[in-house]
Design a protein that fits this description.
- The complex is a heterodimer of chains A (262) and B (400).
- Chain A is an alpha/beta fold.
- Chain A has a single domain, classed as 3-Layer(aba) Sandwich (Rossmann fold), CATH 3.40.50.
- Chain A has seven helices and 15 strands.
- In chain A, the strands form three sheets. A nine-stranded mixed beta sheet of chain A has the order 11-10-9-12-8-1-6-7-13, with helices on both faces.
- In chain A, α3 crosses α4.
- The longest helix of chain A has 16 residues.
- With 400 residues, chain B is α/β, with parallel strands linked by helices.
- Chain B has twelve helices and 22 strands.
- Chain B has a seven-stranded parallel beta sheet with strand order 11-15-10-5-8-9-16, with helices on both faces. A five-stranded parallel beta sheet of chain B has the order 19-18-20-21-22.
- In chain B, α11 links the parallel β21 and β22.
- The N and C termini of chain B lie far apart (72 Å).
- At the A-B interface, β3, α3, α4, β9 and β10 of A face α6, α7, β11, β13 and β14 of B.
Chain lengths: 262, 400
Amino acid sequence: MKIIVCAKQVPDTTEVKIDPVKGTLIRDGVPSILNPDDANALEAALQIKDADPDTTVTIVSMGPPQATEMIRECLAMGADNGILLSDRAFGGADTIATSSQIAAAIRKIADYDIIFAGRQAIDGDTAQVGPQIARRLGLPVVTYVQKIREFKDGKVIVERQLEDGYEVLEVQMPCLLTAVKELNTPRYMTVHGIMDAYKADIPVWNHDDLGLAPECCGLNASPTQVLRSFTPAPKGKGEMAAGSVKDMTETLVDRLNEKHLI
Amino acid sequence: MAIIVKTNECKGCGLCVKNCPFDAIALNADRKAVVGAGCTECGKCVDACPFKAIEKKSLAAAEKKTVNIHDYHGVWVFAEQRGGKLMNVVIELLGEGRKLADEIGTELCAVLLGENVKGLTDELIGYGADKVYYADAPELKSYTTDAYTKVIYDAINEYKPEIVLLGATHIGRDLGPCLSVQCETGLTADCTKLGIDPEDKKIQQTRPAFGGNLMATIVCPNNRPQMSTVRPGVMAKAEFDKNHKGTVIELKPSLKAEDLRVKVLEIINSVENQVSLTDAKIIVSGGMGLGRPEGFELIQKLADRLGGVVGSSRACVDAGWIPHSHQVGQTGTTVKPDIYIACGISGAIQHVAGMKESGYIVAINKNEAAPIFEIADYGIVGDLYEVIPAFIEALDAKNK
């Protein structure tokens, strides 16, 4: 089987902190990581490869040149090759432009049976690019895949997570599936894999390679624009309890009563 | 990108029409190929044309001139139903949609798809919809990406709404991106605040980014419709008014077998996932301060005593102490209960982003410097294993 995995290098948002004085983001020293849901997407692909060694797994990522490090990480986990889409012209892309660029790259790769992506990236949390790529390629899509049950007759049977349960879906291949963390537990890199990944050649494609004019990329091709950004205002400080544990909890019950909350 | 037909080269053979997987190309009266709105630019027609009369061009200009934003009017709400019941977020969207529509001076409409759910149209009108676009077909009984995208995209094309709002549910977050590609328009995900620019009447969509560390206000100036998914539990619900009048417009869905490439085999409601944090009036949440997974038994005990449900921080979910369905915060559920009790939760910004709108926030934490106290209405510095039992005792004492 031929598998493409869409992956993104993201800042670890759990490590992002706010400058308490200026109220701005502190980005220095925030590590860049393989987006967590994308690690599940890759693991799903690698499990298919475990079962059928005749499988190739190709990573497609878009980002700055240093994102090749993350692609090497994917190779060290077991992916066969990786391609980075990187170009100044891609800067400022919203999800519509991003999906158009990644879809163009996948069209160029041309030969695939299944595309995996993570449900969403933790820096933007939009969950849009996966289904948008599928739509641009004219492929069926299933988002929030929590289990892959079986492949049969050119179809795949998957479970799609819902807020109040899940649904079992039968999908025609080729298709695009987006992974949630419940799908699997991503494997670690192997020592052998790290050695090979270090030497691997990772092609970098720009807008010319994708056959897209610069005005059809990045900010120019993005319908949405950021009008302004700001740090959320903290709420005013409330009351701090005082006294013994008994005093504090009794006052709490009083407060809830006063406000008719209980 | 755009698919361009060079009309002087086109011989009207119709091979492009036969090869188009999306039924998006047709011959006009002069037997010249015309690309329709359903085009996904897959390029099949380019390959199929023996006269090289069709080409795919990177033409930003071609893309932009396709839409005249002044043709678009009205605010639409996607009336998501599951098993014949409207999702709560639909009522919230109607509440918010009403405000937006009034500010623009336009109508509020709902789009309802399903099988035999016409009864819901009255409900939607009662909650403020001036019009309900309703499509009834067996293929629409449960959500599938292909069928819902096709029917709603066709309706958007025909009736041209200026704004489309969807709940940021697992279904809305699947449907929204597909519609945005079909319409080649912007979609802002997981909005927590919407407003109308008083000058140009365009929507301003505010959403958290970077795990809630930053808020961004997004606009979509030149494309239509302007689309947003909205976090469930954030907007105020519309009031029901049985005297509100509205009209129902039946959509005629035209679905073919090839539109339905995903088949729903079964839908399972699992008890484990039925936490319904969004609807809870009282939430008691536990964090890493519990020290061990068994700590959630105490959290559960307090939640049961108050008639609430159990929430959790992301760290506990990542540690495998409790299922993801309990997670409150940026990557979990946004909640707005009357009472939120955070036990052993330090108050990482991504958690706070998901609960700070709660009515009354109680924080219990050993560390008096924990950021959770910054937003708490009532803070107790202490060991939660002492404080919670004492709190339950105090509640019991009060009830006597």
